[in-house]
Automatic annotation (TrEMBL):
Name of this chain's protein: Mammalian cell entry protein
Residue ranges of every copy of the Mce/MlaD domain listed in the record: 39-109
Keyword tags: Coiled coil
Highest taxon of the lineage: Bacteria
Coiled coil residues, start to end: 261-299
Positions of transmembrane segments: none
Any Pfam family hit: MlaD
Source organism (scientific name): Comamonas aquatica DA1877
Amino acid sequence: MRAVSHLERKAAALLLLTLALIVGAALYLLYARGAFEPTQSLVLTSDDSEGVTVGMDMTFSGFPIGRVSKLELAPDGNVRILVAVPRKDAHWLRESSVFTLVKGLVGGTTIKAYSGMLQDPPLHDGAERPVLRGDATAEIPQMVAMAKELLNNLSLMTARDSPLGQSLEQVRLLGQKLNGDSGAMEVLLGTPENARKTVEMLDRANQLLARMDRVVQRTDQQVFDADGLMPQLRTTVQTLNLVLADTRTSLRKLDAVLANAEGISANVQEASTDIGQLRNEVESNLRKVEDLLTELQRKWPFAKDGKVELP
């Protein structure tokens, strides 16, 4: 077997090269993580640091702008969380910035910074700020107690003897009554007997209205038809007016004859004959008037008993 020349030197060079690569990788990793970047310190104080570890990021709007470099316990019992913030990202922190420490149900603890007023003065190096802590898991017992109380109240509400159960039972009975024979009438009147009586009363009222309608129609026919009372009464009145006109004419003739009887005493016999004829005509006309009035009173349903006396 042929021996390799300078084997020890080559092995040492390889070891040195490997060591240099390892050191270079470590330095690159430190550089990539900002180990050689200038930073400023920020101290966050809290009464509990559970879930906080060295190397944890502090985020602003979801981007890491700082890293926890140290945890220590203060003399007053609070926890001091030292955060290293790169100077290139320090301008996001202002005097009015708010810091929170949130422990969620899913995932680990997170430290977040909120700067609502970016016009405020920047936060100085070494500033100490309190951190607002929010633990979602701490609300679980209270939420469980509230859920249990809610379920108990729901069980009491849905029980058969509960007010809600009784109300639902009343609604069910109301639905049964509405679907019954009487329907809403029974709901309004209370009992089926009252509903039946009301329906019967309405039927009787409808029958009475129908009868009244027929009576009105019959009365209208008897009074206002062509053969009814009103046309006959109109004809009778016209006839009576004619008879009265004849009577008026006869009376005027009688007045003239009486005047002639007073002026001419020589023709007494002739005047007496004329007076007798005129009296007969007047009596005839008055009898016609009496017959017409009798017929009018017989046809007029609201007329009272009356008599016409002759002079």
